[in-house]
Amino acid sequence: MSYKTLFGERKVALRDVSLEIEEGEIFGILGPNAAGKTTLISILSTLLIPDSGSVSIFGMDAFKETKKIRERINMSSGLNLPWSLSVYECLKFFGMAYGVKDNRIEELIESFELSEFRDVEFEELSTGNKQKLSLAKAFVNDPELVFLDEPTTGLDPDVARKVRKKILKIHEEEGITIVLTTHYMAEAELLCDRITFLNHGRIIAEGTQDDLKKIIGAKDRVIVELSYIDTISFDKLPPEGIYSVEFRDEKLIFFVDSGEKRIKEIVKLIEPYWNNVKGITVEEANLEDVFLELAKRA
Ligand SMILES: Nc1ncnc2c1ncn2[C@@H]1O[C@H](COP(=O)(O)OP(=O)(O)O)[C@@H](O)[C@H]1O
Ligand SMILES: [Mg+2]
Fold first, then answer.
1. From CA 122, how far away is CA 85, in angstroms rounded?
2. Whose CA is nearest to atom 23 of ligand 1?
3. Ligand 1, atom 27, residue with closest C-alpha
4. Each residue of 99-126: pLDDT tens digit?
5. Best mutation site among 2, 3, 37, 150 for ligand 1, i.e. most ligand atoms within 8 A of its Cβ?
6. What is the pLDDT of residues 187-238, one digit of tens each?
């Protein structure tokens, strides 16, 4: 998929992307800014037609049977709703296309905690409430499949947490298939059954969280916090079971098969720096580690 720039060149935003989303799952498209997430989710949700390639939804060709598909899907993409409509009017407006009844609209207003703002115009809402309204809009037609483009970007941590909880709750209660994009690793980790990592328009890894963590081989990481140290070097190679060591932000991070098993060896290894050790913790490896590793290889 490419875009024409203002200079008349073509800029490729997506290349060789192929993926399958299973019914009932929460599928995450994860990647940094400009990775191509919005382009991809726009193509998947029938809003954008790619230069080449195909999309099949519910067994139908997304670019031929678009109307039929659109009745059964919906999307939320940022805070670009009509600025002069109130919460109620906005949902009514988007519901009209599907013949949605008033009680469904009231139900959504309540469910997304917008009752207090029912008659407030979109432009007067806080960012958090704008986002909630944008999400409520995505569920107006009782869709079987919903696309959410960065549902928590720009929100206070508190509101972001609430929105994530809400997404999980809707998914749990109504079994809707959800495809979302995010650049927050922790968000993908919390919400997604399967994840595809996008970078520079390409898929660089894909799978369940466990699959992805296997890329770095390690199950745990042992973090040794140090004080007043610029560089560190070891005079012998790490023993088996310690896959790699990194030094960042005054922390030594050991990626290991099992934190419990390797802690003794690690303590021995860092003995020369013992006076600088402020603390040692063991954590499970996370998606951030996977991403850093993938970025290194790219
Ligand atoms: N309408 C457009 N015209 C030109 N270039 C675009 C357009 N939309 C996106 N791009 C470019 O395509 C790339 C992918 O963008 P996007 O899909 O928005 O990424 P993301 O959502 O991951 O931040 C970026 O380099 C972006 O600048
Ligand atoms: Mg985007």
1. 6
2. 34
3. 34
4. 999 999 999 999 999 999 999 999 999 9
5. 3
6. 999 999 999 999 999 999 999 988 888 887 878 999 999 998 878 888 777 7
Which residues have C-beta atoms less than 6 Å from ligand 1?
Answer: 3, 5, 11, 13, 31, 33-39
Mean pLDDT of 59-76: 96
DSSP track, 46-104: TSS--SS---EETTEETTTSHHHHHHHEEEEESS-S-TTSBHHHHHHHHHHTTT--HHH
Report CA(152)–ligand 2 centroid distance (Å): 12
The number of the ligand 1 atom at minimal distance from the alpha carbon of 150 is 21
CA dihedral sign, ordered 265, 266, 269, 272: negative
Here the tokens at position 132 are: 């909630």
User: Per the structure block, which two tokens stand in for 269?
Assistant: 């290894």
* Cβ within 8 Å of residue 246, ≥6 positions away: 252, 253, 255
Pick among 3.40.50.620, 3.30.70.660, 3.30.565.10, 3.40.50.300: CATH of 2-213: 3.40.50.300
Return the biggest CA–CA distance within the chain: 72
DSSP three-state, residue 229: coil
Q: Give the domain ranges of the chain.
A: 2-213, 216-297
Q: How far is CA 154 from CA 36, 131, 157, 229, 279, in A?
A: 19, 9, 9, 35, 33
Domain 216-297 class, CATH top level:
alpha beta
Give the number of other Cβ atoms within 10 Å of residue 136's Cβ.
24
259-298, pLDDT tens digit by residue?
999 999 999 999 989 999 999 999 988 888 888 788 777 6
The amino acid at 62: A
